[in-house]
Specification:
By secondary structure, this protein is α/β, with parallel strands linked by helices. The protein has helices spanning 8-14, 45-63, 75-83, 98-103, 111-117, 119-124, 158-164, 174-187, 237-251, 283-291, 323-335, 337-345, 394-404, 421-439, 445-459, 461-479, and strands spanning 33-40, 65-72, 90-92, 134-135, 138-139, 150-157, 192-194, 210-213, 217-219, 230-231, 272-279, 295-305, 314-315, 353-356, 360-362, 386-387, 406-407. It holds the Pfam family DUF3502.
Length: 480
């Protein structure tokens, strides 16, 4: 499924599954409990209720629990629910501040629960993939099995490349890419050669950095184990070079006008030839399905496995009344294909039907599916069937991709931000002023980058770096 990306500022306006207020987990009868699941998605309230009822028929027998699924992409609403103490049982905390949830006591420690009540999933998880789930030597998040590594580069319309006689495999970097964009501008005046991936200049990163915390804390070369010196993305030569490219390309008319402030959430489906993308096996098929054209990619950065892709997004809130049952439910979602498929895709014959039993599904003809959205948000992507048009072998290819990727030096390190949140907030305010305009060529890098760094330093960037370096050094020393 297409991975839709939206900025937090507009999520509330776009949310389609918000007509609910999660309640306390309650006993359905003397033996069966009812568990509230909150997952990142856009399934309609009506469909969530139908799927919850059908799924409960299975979970009632397997673990003595019924489920109520809520889907939302409204990060602010979910954050409010968590911080205000709403009684939830199993939460997909995508896009939430994980460190903040832990430090404020909103989550249960999961070490014992995971060992005792999730044996099937635990047997499937590699030790390496649990490192980033811990804060202060306690597990607070649960592992996710999907794209644990990412390459990056660009996605381009294949029909246009074919008409221009260009092979995507020949595009090795920014200079090659520039030459293609120039030809697109000359031959297709109704298209913008390069567009954002989502609203407000949204852009996937195509850098070799090991991004530890939101661009403010990085290692300049994530592929070099000897590079352990903390800096910011904005001080790396690679990012400065990128901004210079984009500024030049903007002068040449190769970028979508006003890209940094665009309100178009999917310009690649309408007016764009290319955008920057993370790349994993199956990405071209998903992207093509979601954007109405056939797309091909060119890779600029090799696969890297880092903490960001392995940090885990599922957790059990501190207010959960039945944490043992919540963990048993997560165990099923991770390890039981029947349960996982229904949770992610809905009811067979209603929301999906089999094309190849056990491996390939499709939405039934004439049906507008209002349930299935973000399959990656569920605990185990690789246990799910694929949608028609994608080779079932992509699941195995993704496993091999993850295994073959380079390991970031800081893999497993999670920055504790509790003592530097004031500085982070101040630096984020500075970022809002400079980062996106620089990355879309709206500001002259020669003038703006020094100003950007100066204002970051005034906001406390070096304090952040000192604390991050101390924590990273301690973490790396423990790994020896």
């Amino acid at each position: 499924m297409k991975r839709k990306k939206m900025m937090a500022a507009v999520l509330a306006a776009l949310m389609t599954c918000s007509a609910f207020t999660p309640a306390v987990a309650v006993k359905a009868d003397d033996d069966v409990v009812k568990l509230k699941i909150w997952v990142f998605g856009e399934g309609s309230t009506e469909e969530c209720e139908k799927v919850s009822e059908a799924l409960s028929e299975i979970t009632r027998e397997k673990i003595g629990a019924e489920v109520e699924i809520y889907q939302t992409i409204d990060t602010e609403k979910l954050n409010l629910a968590m911080t205000s103490g709403e009684k939830l049982d199993l939460v997909c905390a995508h896009n939430l501040d994980r460190s903040g949830l832990v430090s404020s006591g909103m989550l249960l420690p999961l070490d014992d629960l995971y060992t005792e009540y999730a044996p099937d999933a635990a047997a499937m998880v590699k030790e390496e993939d649990t490192k980033a789930l811990y804060f202060d030597d306690q597990m607070y998040f649960l592992p996710s099995n999907g794209d644990k590594a990412r390459a990056s580069g660009v996605m381009m319309r294949k029909d246009i490349l074919d008409e221009l006689g260009i092979n995507a495999d020949d595009i090795k970097g920014m200079d090659d890419f520039h030459d293609v964009l120039v030809k697109v501008k000359e031959n297709y005046p109704d298209l913008y050669p390069l567009v954002p991936s989502w609203v407000g200049g949204g852009m996937q990163k195509t850098f070799h950095i090991d991004d530890i915390y939101n661009g403010l804390v990085v290692l300049e070369n994530g592929f070099d184990p000897s590079d352990t010196t903390i800096t910011s993305q904005y001080e790396t030569q690679e990012w400065k070079d990128f901004c210079n490219y984009m500024y030049q390309w903007n002068q040449e008319g190769l970028l979508m006008p006003d890209a940094a402030t665009s309100t178009d959430n999917s310009p690649m489906s309408t007016v764009g030839f290319a955008d920057y993308e993370n790349l994993i096996p199956g990405k071209e098929a998903d992207f093509s399905k979601g954007n109405g054209h056939e797309f091909v990619s060119a890779q600029f950065v090799e696969p890297l496995k880092d903490t960001e892709r392995n940090k885990g997004i599922w957790c059990i809130p501190a207010g959960c009344e039945y944490p043992e049952k919540a963990m048993e439910l997560w165990n099923l979602l991770y390890s039981d294909k029947e349960v996982a498929t229904m949770a992610a895709y809905g009811i067979e014959g209603v929301n999906y039907e089999w094309v190849e039993e056990g491996s390939v599904v499709k939405i039934p003809d004439g049906v507008k599916d209002t349930y299935t959205t973000y399959e990656w948000a569920w605990p185990n992507l690789n246990i799910l069937p694929v949608f028609e048009g994608k080779d079932p072998a992509v699941r195995q290819e993704l496993e091999e991709f993850n295994d073959s990727a380079a390991r970031a030096t800081s893999l497993g390190f999670v920055l504790d931000t509790s003592t530097i949140m004031n500085e982070i907030t101040a630096c984020n305010n500075v970022k809002q002023k400079y980062e996106t305009p620089l990355q879309w060529g709206a500001l002259d890098p020669e003038e703006a980058i020094p100003e950007f760094i100066e204002e970051l330093e005034a906001a406390g960037l070096r304090t952040i770096h000192e604390e991050a370096q101390r924590q990273l050094d301690e973490y790396l020393a423990k790994q020896k």
